[in-house]
Each structure stands twice: as C-alpha cells, then as structure tokens.
Amino acid sequence: MSEVSEDAIVRILIADYASTDAAGKLNLIGGGLAVIGVQGPQLGGSEGNTAPFGLFVSLAVGPRLYGSECAAELILEDESDQVVAVPTPDSKGSQPMRIAQNIVFEEPNLPRGSPRVPRNVLPAKVQWVLMFPGGLTLTPGTAFHWRVKIDHESRPDWVEQFFVPAAPGPIVVG
C-alpha cells in the first residue's frame, strides 16, 4: 500500500446535479442518491438509460503529503465487482467505465480576499465532477457501485453503491 493510499480520504456522492465553482466549492442538488431511475421515450430520454445524474469524487491527503503523486481511478462495477462496459458514443461497441488519472496533491491556494490560513493546516484535495446528462445504459433491476482506487488500492469506504430499478415509476423503499 502506498503512503498516499494509506493516508487518503475519499468521498463519493451521487446527485441529480453536481458542480464546483472557481473556489472549489461543491454545488449539489438532490445529493445522496441511492436509486437512479430509468428513463424512456415517455420521459423524454433514451430507452434503456438511467435518468441524468452527477457524480462528485473528492480525494484528500494531509499536509505532510503536499506534492505527492499517485495514480487514481474511478470505476463503475456491478454486484460481482466486475467493471461495467457502457456503449461508446458512436454506438459501435462498448468500453469499460473507468476513468484514470495521475494526480499531484498540491498545497491549497486560497483565492485573494480569503481569510489568512496558516500553511500546512488544510488537506490537499483533488475533486472530480462528472455529469451524465443522458444517463448511462445500465441493466435495470441491478445494483452497481462506483469504486475509487489509489495506486491500485481500494477500501470499503471508497465505494458508493446505487440501484437501477426495473421500470420507471415511484421509488418504494422497503
């Protein structure tokens, strides 16, 4: 296990809408989704796709790791922890739903006019916001989860589960 993956704090949120502003503040509507509905032509969407949704991922490390590098991955997996393949934009095949990036955890640079904060107090953060305005083509009636890996390592708290119901309609929990 790498020093970064040992120290990292990961947060994953699924929402109806997510964005960050220039200061890195999260703007969220309908956050904490656990069920992502399906849409069809009667709902103005593409047959077999989920409803539109957003995904927010935050990776943070303490000040002692300012300047540290790591390989980070965001992966969509099914109930068996297998990577889910989604159709390509050209509809001529599919590809695994995996986003990978090498990242460097930089010391926070607060905008002008911010209160003075002593050095080495705040964690270094990298944030991703992904919007899926057309939803994703996922098998209805199935549970999925987003998993974060840092330097090829993952932990149970770096996973966010969700369910895609079998048909459009009201959500019944129970």
Task: Please tag this protein with its features.
single chain; 174 residues; mainly beta; Immunoglobulin-like; three-stranded antiparallel beta sheet; 1 helix; globular
Describe this structure in words.
- By secondary structure, the protein is mainly β.
- Helix content is 3%, strand content 43%.
- The strands form 5 sheets. It has a 4-stranded antiparallel beta sheet, with no helix packed on it.
- Strand 8 and strand 9 (94-96) form a beta hairpin.
- The mean pLDDT is 89.
Give the overall silhouette.
globular
Q: Write the CATH architecture name.
A: Sandwich
Tell me the CATH topology: Immunoglobulin-like
Alpha-carbon distance between the two ends: 39 Å
Residue-averaged pLDDT, rounded? 89
Share of β-strand residues: 35-45%
**How much helix is in the residues?**
under 10%
Number of H/I helices: 1
Poorly predicted ranges: none
Largest sheet: 4 strands, antiparallel
For the largest beta sheet, what order do the strands appear in spatially?
10-7-12-13
**How does the helix and strand content classify structurally?**
mainly beta
- CATH class category label: Mainly Beta
Number of self-contained structural domains: 1
Order of helices and strands: HEEEEEEEEEEEEE
Rg calculated over all Cα atoms = 18 Å
